[in-house]
Amino acid sequence: KDSYSVTLLPGDGIGPEITSATVGALNALTSHTSWSINFKESLIGGAALDATDNKDAFPDSSLEECRKADSILLACIGGYKWDNNPREARPETGLLKMRSEMGLFANLRPAKVLPQLIGASTLKPEVITGVDIMVVRELTGDVYFGTPKGIDVVDGERVGYNNMIYKESEIRRIARVAGEVAMKRGGKICSVEKSNVLDVSQLWKEVTIDVMEKEFPKIDLSHMYVDNAAMQLIRYPKQFDTIVTGNIFGDILSDEASMLVGSLGMLPSASIGSSGPGVFEPCHGSAPDIAGEDKANPLAMILSAAMMLRYDLGRGEEADVLERAVEMCLDEGWRTGDIKQEGDGCTLVGCKEMGKKVEAAI
Amino acid sequence: KDSYSVTLLPGDGIGPEITSATVGALNALTSHTSWSINFKESLIGGAALDATDNKDAFPDSSLEECRKADSILLACIGGYKWDNNPREARPETGLLKMRSEMGLFANLRPAKVLPQLIGASTLKPEVITGVDIMVVRELTGDVYFGTPKGIDVVDGERVGYNNMIYKESEIRRIARVAGEVAMKRGGKICSVEKSNVLDVSQLWKEVTIDVMEKEFPKIDLSHMYVDNAAMQLIRYPKQFDTIVTGNIFGDILSDEASMLVGSLGMLPSASIGSSGPGVFEPCHGSAPDIAGEDKANPLAMILSAAMMLRYDLGRGEEADVLERAVEMCLDEGWRTGDIKQEGDGCTLVGCKEMGKKVEAAI
Ligand SMILES: CC(C)[C@H](C(=O)O)[C@@H](O)C(=O)O
Ligand SMILES: CC(C)[C@H](C(=O)O)[C@@H](O)C(=O)O
Question: Which of B23, B99, B188, B335 has the fewest CB within 10 Å, making it most exposed?
């Protein structure tokens, strides 16, 4: 293929700024390649709510655009403006609809500590040096989408409930993704659940063991309860290579793991399905407090674009180039506010300038 | 009252050792008071399974003993021996039965950083100095006890599920406990849930707001999503005073918070109901790897006994004495293996000796 179509979902807050820095970096990259990328923008989140009279945070028109594309780059969503909307009219609801409608059942969230930013973490340097964890989070099941759910009145009082539920086939396919990911890494998987209490976790554990035994006999599989995992991530993070877990535990643990790295501003993620385009997005939120002020860190989105090149467009070499360009910028001492530390001798730059530095490094 | 009855549940692993150190400390304390404590042992966990032919990890005889007592001191449960039992015959199942049968709906887990042990944490000293968090975890509801639950076969494949469910009255009573606790502390509560996704969390949030507005108007109430809370506990733990949350989120976050303190070996907890005796226990597990070797740290259980004196026996002054005795031992430089650090100039002691040091300090 010599031309790819990529749908851009700039979303809200700092989204448009980091999207344009990312597009700049990708254009700089493809000016050296025989292939090119065509970008097309679509709406999601608050931007989509504004455009649809608060009806849909991921309109069908956006869904169609996404389905047609070779891949999707999402910036971030949400903001004060929509915070008090009912759940149906919240930016997050668009994100959940996108994941579900596009079948993006696997969320890959690397937490790799960069030597240049080792001081940015609240953990001691000796604890986090060399940490390189990949969290493989299931993304379209669990208590997020389980039914029955709702708020009913029973015996004169309200009762709220959501079903924490997994089918064998759902566990099987995420375990396979984890197996494939781990085979390309350290070959070690820690499956995180709460099987000492929950039936759904019991099934999770059994199916995970079955998949690994039959399909990935070389994988070193271990099991950990989610409460212990939350502890071990802080106590001794180097013990982890690949973590596989359900949607809600993965939501919590991947955010926790991101703190090892110091700043969310550096963390990319990939959401992929069994076929069709994936969605690549930074782990951070839309930071409405600094939106429009050219203070945002575009590097997590640029690193997400690298994941897109590698996973969706099959352009691993160019992904490497992009990742190395980001590292070069850090080595050269360029820092946005979120990763700047007192007395680090580095130079504070804005979002635009950081984008230009990456382009130059390419 | 001049005599209290306390049921001891030594449980498994290091349980018996730390129980006898704790009883020693309590006896030393009551040798100076006009009132006394009568201890009676009962079975729970693996010890109970062994005695009942793997039938019941909390037999009705233990339940009766506990109900009759003024308070209950639990050490810890579990061990390799029972790890592969089916869930009905696991030590943890006894714990869950105890909580539920005795109506212990509120679990208080303080995470207070002690200046003497500041170096034991993997977090930087400046991040944790002064941290003093109380996690108020709901303990008898949520996905832990929700029905329907099970593993069924649907359309030819297994499906595992548990219901994440809260009634308004359950949320109301735990919010009240949090309100009372917070009024005696910094007056600040952070309610942790996932109301951007879950109906049950939406209800949690609404009811919590209602309780605070009507019954605790002076409380400074804030709300945080559980993924963000997992992050903020590491990023800037000093922002928290009292955290109130559901059973599973509390399970995860209280274990995470305990890592701020450095060692689980120092952390007490209290589980209380609306009437009847409470259960006081250390947060750590049964450490089967060092069981019987006189290496365990009895201080978390001794601090749990202090919580018992304060909450169940109404002996706050004596609770203070016990807590100060523990601090004195640390100041004097006595350390069990789990809190000993290289080059700290402290003296390594065993479980028994640490108990004696506390007795002496009293
Ligand atoms: C915004 C929210 C619905 C979402 C989630 O919980 O999945 C976010 O926290 C994430 O991790 O992508
Ligand atoms: C042993 C287990 C069932 C228990 C729980 O999950 O509640 C434990 O982790 C705790 O926090 O007391």
Answer: B188
